[in-house]
Design a protein that fits this description.
Length: about 280
């Protein structure tokens, strides 16, 4: 199947929801198709190299300056799919459109509250640990421009999914601060991550160590910046993780789903031990 044929099938199957919500096709290229209306704009983009079909949207259509949010991705192998598969993909896109652009539901996005953070006092005295909601809250406080994307993540999935948010949005900011930020900006970033890592749950340690800082992939310049501000407690595992994420192969795949592991504060986090538990 050709991608233009797939787009025709998708467009046909989206006709009802587009009519209901006032969307009309605004553009089409060799690898994407876009629809816009009073509620915003969305597009479906195909990456021929990876065979990934992405659904991207924005509540404001600013032409070429529109900042799209990727809300879903799926494997779309043109040499293996048929019309039934394409219709199924269109049905999934229809659900996304209704969920994100139905005017009643869009208005409710403003009512979604940011996740609550565990208090520093309780985290420090050990009565409760920082969790992924705490990470979302502190990240949004540090970078307010990402609050809407955090809320959109919650609106779409019913809870905050940290891997999705940071892979699709947050990591871009983190890496930019590490590469191009001022000393003060870099210090604030690592202070926030370090506090949550040190007194955090197993899950939030995995997100910070692997999903976020693992994306440095042992780049010398970024690691040098990290070393200026990381605590000793966090530096050990971050270095071990980056040695692995810099490589390709089985060990990198292991890191995508690391086992639950939380060291005592007076010991170093051992990613090697964590990986060995999966073998």
């Amino acid at each position: 199947m050709q991608i233009n044929e797939a787009f025709r099938i998708i467009e046909k199957n989206l006709n009802d929801i587009n009519t209901e919500l006032g969307f009309k096709k605004s553009s089409e290229s060799d690898n994407s198709i876009s629809f816009s209306g009073e509620n915003g704009i969305y597009r479906i983009v195909f990456d021929e190299e990876t065979s990934i079909l992405s659904f991207e949207c924005a509540y404001e259509d600013n032409g070429e300056k529109t900042e799209f949010n990727t809300t879903s991705r799926s494997l779309f192998e043109l040499d293996r799919i048929d019309e039934r598969d394409v219709r199924s993909t269109a049905n999934e896109a229809r659900d996304e459109i209704d969920h994100l652009f139905n005017t009643k539901k869009k208005a409710n996005l403003d009512k979604i509250k940011m996740p609550k953070a565990v208090s520093r006092t309780k985290a420090k005295n050990g009565s409760i640990s920082y969790d992924v909601d705490s990470l979302a809250n502190r990240f949004g406080a540090l970078y307010p421009e990402y609050k809407e994307e955090i809320k959109m993540n919650i609106a779409q999935y019913g809870e905050f999914l940290p891997e999705t948010f940071f892979i699709e949005h947050g990591n871009k900011k983190v890496l930019d601060v590490i590469k191009n930020g001022t000393d003060a900006e870099q210090k604030r970033l690592f202070k926030m991550l370090g506090e949550i890592f040190e007194d955090g749950t197993n899950e939030v340690q995995d997100i910070i160590g692997v999903t976020i800082l693992g994306e440095m992939k042992n780049d010398k310049e970024m690691m040098a910046v990290a070393d200026k501000y990381m605590t000793e407690y966090m530096a050990g595992p971050v270095h071990e993780i980056n040695k692995i994420t810099a490589k390709k192969g089985g060990l990198t795949k292991k890191l995508e789903n690391p086992p639950a592991y939380k060291p005592k504060k007076n010991k170093s986090f051992s990613i090697a031990n964590a990986l060995n538990q999966q073998r």
